[in-house]
Amino acid sequence: MSKHTPDLDRAQFGKNFEWGVATAAFQIEGSHEAHGKGLSIWDVFADRKRTIKNGHDAKIACDFYNLYEKDIAMIRDLNIPNFRFSISWSRLMPSGKLPFNQAGIDFYNRVIDCLLEYGITPWITLYHWDLPYELELKGGWTNRDSVSWFSDYTALCAKHFGDRVMNWMVMNEPSVFTGAGYFLGIHAPGKRGLTNFLKAVHHVTLATAEGGRVLRSHSENFNIGTTFSCTHITPYSDAKRDQNAAKRVDTLLNRTFIEPILGLGYPQRDLPILQQLDRYMLGDDEKKMAFEFDFIGIQCYTREVVKSSMFTPYMGAALVKPSKRNVPITEMNWEVYPPSIYHLIKKFNNYKGIKKLFVTENGAAFPDSIRDGSVYDLQRIDYIRDHLSQVLKAKQEGLKADGYFVWSLMDNFEWAEGYHPRFGLVYVDFNTQKRTIKQSGFWFRDFLGAL
Question: Which residues are catalytic?
Answer without folding.
Answer: 173, 361
